[in-house]
Amino acid sequence: MKVLVVEDNEILSRNIVRYLSSREIFTEASLDWEDWLYKALTKHYDVIILDINLPRKDWLEVCKTIRDRGKEVSIIMLTSRWTNEDIVTGLDIWADDYLVKPFEYSELLARINAIYRRRMQNQSNTMICFSDIEINLKSHEVKQNGENISLSKLEFELLKFLAQNRTKALSREEIYEVVWWESGNDFVFSKTIDVYVGYLRKKLWKEVIETVKGFWFLIP
């Protein structure tokens, strides 16, 4: 799990990072909105812990920018404002949860773990994850280490079929029947599957797909 802490109180920010890191959660921190927006848009995080009282910027506007870019990240608001309006606005629009300062670090950890579990449960029917690769079955998006990988329709279907049968060696005939024939592509040269495996190897890390005895392919 990767967490980004956005808090301009340097002592509080450092303490949160230290606490979460001691629980084996990879945690980074930002002290201002420019830095955290850059990190949120260029890196992959599972959870952002956001102080919504940061000066000089509307936090709702920054969250909207992140959502508009298609970033799938959970946001926990930290707020010293004890008003229902602030909380309801955040939860209705962009955020997933909130904590009012001061708070116990153990409670923050519990909120992070609960959000992460919900996200994994929601993704179980729409996501295939292995190694550093995420395959979104709903949006047909593929990410490696948080970066989008552009695939054609057949490349996506091939990767999906291999991922759905991880550790199983698949013959060219099995791949053809599911990826090509069921997709309406009922004519394929014998080497076409090898060509498309080659396409995937160039776009992903080469060791993602293995060749077994020259006849079968698998994702280990």
Q: Structural class, judged by helices and strands?
A: alpha/beta
Low-confidence spans: pLDDT under 50, at least 5 residues? none
Q: Span between N and C termini?
A: 22 Å
Largest sheet: 5 strands, parallel
Radius of gyration, taken over Cα atoms and rounded to an integer in Å: 21 Å
What is the total tally of β strands?
Answer: 12
Instruction: Determine the fraction of residues in helical runs and give it as a percent range.
Output: 40-55%
pLDDT averaged over residues: 82
Q: Classify the beta-strand content into a percent band.
A: 15-25%
User: What's the helix-strand series?
Assistant: EHEHEHEHEHEEEEHEHHEE
Q: What order do the strands of the largest sheet run in, or round the barrel if closed?
A: 2-1-3-4-5
Number of helices: 8
Basic shape: elongated
Question: Would you give an account of this structure?
Answer:
With 220 residues, the protein is of the alpha/beta class. Helices cover 44% and strands 22% of the residues. It contains eight helices and twelve strands. It has a five-stranded parallel β-sheet, with helices on both faces. Strands 6-7-8-9 form a four-stranded antiparallel β-sheet, covered by helices on one side. Strand 4, helix 4 (84-93) and strand 5 (97-100) form a beta-alpha-beta unit. Helix 6 packs across helix 7 and helix 6 packs across helix 8. The longest helix is centred in the middle third of the chain and has 19 residues, at 105-123. The two termini are 22 Å apart.
